[in-house]
Amino acid sequence: MRIRESLLAGPLGFGTAPLGNMFRDIPEDEALATVDAAWDAGTRFFDTAPFYGAGLAEIRLGEALSRRPRSDYVLSSKVGRLILDEIEDPSGRDHGEKGEIFKHGRPNKIVPDYTADGTMKSIEDSLKRMKVDHIDFVWVHDIAQDFYGDRWLAMFETARTGAFRALSKLRDQGVIKGWGLGVNKVEPVELLLGLSEADPDATLLAGRYTLLDHEMALQRLMPAAQRKKVDIVIGGPYSSGVLAGGRHFEYGAVPPAIAAKVEKLSALCTEYKIPIKAAALHFSLAHPASAAVIPGASRPARILEDHAALKTKIPAAFWQELRKRGLVAEAAPLPIDR
């Protein structure tokens, strides 16, 4: 099932990576209040993953949603990594920059597993952590991360004969509504869409269709997704936070060229008196292949900003000037093109 057919309250969802203590040690009450703020603002699509804080985000999300009817929201999580009972130092994990990102998460050891058995075990564990009886959409997570190097193709092959088939079976049995990848690279999604044997319903693409980075996805991925009728859920619309005033881009320091582009975008938004968050969300959703956008947040106020941003009326002149100044690809669909 295409994910856009399942959304209960529009295209704005909540990406819960920050609830796993992403970049900082978030107090429990603040994390739960953020989910409550999302619900009260109308959010009914929540995305999470075992990897976020070694299960912490799932635990917190499940706790916050435990007072809500399960039929009233759409839930997606991920497979590809198992959270073990074995304890280790989170800051020493062999996950490249990701070890630093979730160094404040739970200390459980994380191991990659894209097999069919690993997929079933991951889903079972996620259900227990969130204390729910089903997950709607399941994404095969981070199959092409830089820290995997050349190994990612072998992992993709394992997923092709393991996770992909297991998830297709669960979908066909009605256990889940659909599946796809959950990645921040274009290449694995292209590879998936080219498989005659695989039939994904949607895919979560993080950071690759934003105001700051969209050309590769625009040229190669989005048209293929449209042809295959595979919905794209846009994760990381603020590019790790730099488009929302944060200090990170691609989970690390902001390069000078990116900082310069953000400055130009911010100046244009100031000129037209619109928040840069509004421009970011509306841009990511303007492509016909985009079904939803799921910014992350760890404070209730940020949730309210996201909802206000999506409701912001942006004048056509802003989009015309954005294109005129070369701040987006010439062929990128804009709201005025509809």
TrEMBL record:
Q: Which PANTHER family does the UniProt record give?
A: GH17980P-RELATED
Q: Which domain of life is it from?
A: Bacteria
Q: Which InterPro entries match?
A: AKR, NAD(P)_OxRdtase_dom_sf, NADP_OxRdtase_dom
Q: Which CDD domains match?
A: AKR_AKR15A (cd19152)
| Enzyme Commission number(s) of this protein | 1.1.1.107
Quote any Pfam family the record assigns. Answer: Aldo_ket_red
Specify the NADP-dependent oxidoreductase domain's residue ranges.
11-323
GO MF, one example: pyridoxal 4-dehydrogenase activity
UniProt-recorded name of the protein: Pyridoxal 4-dehydrogenase
Gene name in the database record:
pld1_1
Please report the organism this UniProt entry assigns to the protein.
Bradyrhizobium ivorense
Q: What does the entry list under GO cellular component?
A: cytosol
User: Which controlled-vocabulary keywords does the entry list?
Assistant: Oxidoreductase
